[in-house]
Amino acid sequence: MKCTQRVGWNSSERIPKTLIKESRFFSIKVEVFSDLADQIQKAVWQEKDYKKIFKQLARGESVSAYSLEPQAKLTLFKDRVVIPSNHEIQLDILQKFHDSPLTGHPGHEKTLKLIKRDSHWAGMNQIIKDYVS
Predict the structure, then answer these.
(1) By the 8 A CB rule, do 25 and 35 touch?
(2) Long-range Cβ contact pairs of 35-41 (< 8 A, separation 24 or more)
(3) Packing angle, helices 108-116 and 87-94, rounded to 10
(4) Residue 44: enclosing H or E segment and its boundaries?
(5) Looking at the whole model, is its pTM more than 0.70?
(6) How far apart are CA 93 and CA 103, in angstroms?
(7) What does the alpha-carbon distance between residue 20 and residue 86 come to, in Å, rounded to a whole number?
(8) 80-82 and 14-16: which strand pairing?
(9) Where are the domains of the chain?
């Protein structure tokens, strides 16, 4: 599967085209976070920085920009799932969003945009750049 299709009179001209519908991206997102929800929640609980925030949220206290997703008990930052600094979890997310046949190996910017839409972790821009390069 190609990331671009040749179009126009000049066969060397390329115009990037999205290969899958938005609903497919949503399916990938749901799969990623459903599969990893327990691991993410447990790993966030272990991290010193997030442990305090998670405890405050669990007690019903307000924490600026953070909230708790009640069903999966995931910590959210500006409505995005907080991903711990766990390399295995981050790698799993990167593989599902970048290496999936459904996404067609998007570049750094597109992968960052896809992942950043629904998740957050410290240093994600550089980690995604290193992974995609």
Answers:
(1) no
(2) 35/92, 36/89, 36/92, 36/93, 37/72, 37/74, 39/86, 39/89, 40/74, 40/81, 40/82, 40/83, 40/84, 40/89, 41/72, 41/73, 41/74, 41/75
(3) 110
(4) helix 22-46
(5) no
(6) 13
(7) 29
(8) unpaired
(9) 20-132
Give the pLDDT confidence of 99-133 residue by residue, as tens digits.
766 666 677 888 888 889 889 999 999 999 998 88
Tell me the three state secondary structure of residue 96.
helix
- The mean pLDDT value of the chain amounts to 75
Residues 35/88, Cβ–Cβ less than 8 Å: no
One-letter amino acid of 19: L
Q: What are phi and psi of 120, to 5 degrees?
A: -150, 135
What are 114's two structure tokens? 């896809």
CATH architecture, range 20-132 = Orthogonal Bundle (1.10)
Supply 103's token pair: 């996404």
